Amino acid sequence: MSVRADSQTLQQIPLFRDCDPVALQILAFAAERQEFASGEDIITKGKKARAAFLILNGQAKLRDEGEDLGLAEPGSMLGEVAMLRAGTYAITATASGPVETVRLSHELFIRVAKEYPDFGRAVMRNLGDKLAGHLRELDAIRLMLNKSRNFSDLG
């Protein structure tokens, strides 16, 4: 894939949807390509999060505590929060065949955000929108819990 194609794929990710195409092209150009063999973990729950991975080709099985969560396919971003802050990965993603990714490190993201402040603001705004959506979902669950007399009422 070309840098332009990679940047267009990045723009399809909700986190980057409002970002300047030039900043995305720079991000795509400076990012590292990384390939994973079948059965190899792309990210591992509890391990230090150093980068996000954009899947270009292949699929990854998503798991948490042994529970299958689904598949990540081309265009999926794994570990996106790792670009923004240090921490650990929340899930495990394992290649279910050969997988080609673009590795977006925290250092690279911060450098592009410093050089293109509008890019950083757009990412933070999109992340805030995502967080607000999750909070609305949690509020709806809290309301259901408050209305129920016991857990069997929730079914």
Describe how the helices and strands are arranged.
Layout: H1 3-12, H2 21-30, E1 32-36, E2 41-43, E3 51-57, E4 60-64, E5 67-72, E6 77-78, E7 92-95, E8 99-105, H3 106-115, H4 117-147
Antiparallel strand pairs: 1-8, 2-7, 3-6, 3-8, 4-5, 4-7
Helix pairs in contact: 1-2, 2-3, 3-4
Supply the key terms:
155 residues; alpha+beta; Jelly Rolls; four-stranded antiparallel β-sheet; 8 strands; globular
Could you walk me through the main structural features you see in this protein, from its secondary elements to its overall organization?
The protein has 155 residues and is an alpha+beta fold. The protein has one domain: Jelly Rolls. It has helices spanning 3-12, 21-30, 106-115, 117-147, and strands spanning 32-36, 41-43, 51-57, 60-64, 67-72, 77-78, 92-95, 99-105. The strands form two sheets. Strands 1-8-3-6 form a four-stranded antiparallel β-sheet. The chain has a four-stranded antiparallel β-sheet with strand order 2-7-4-5, with no helix packed on it. A hairpin with a 2-residue loop joins strand 4 (60-64) and strand 5 (67-72). The protein is globular, with a radius of gyration of 17 Å.
Report the C-alpha radius of gyration, rounded.
Answer: 17 Å
CATH-level-2 architecture: Sandwich
CATH class: Mainly Beta
Task: Give me the secondary-structure category.
Answer: alpha+beta
How many structural domains can be distinguished in the coordinates? 1
Describe the largest sheet.
Answer: 4 strands, antiparallel
Strand tally, please? Answer: 8
Poorly predicted parts:
none
**Number of helical elements:** 4
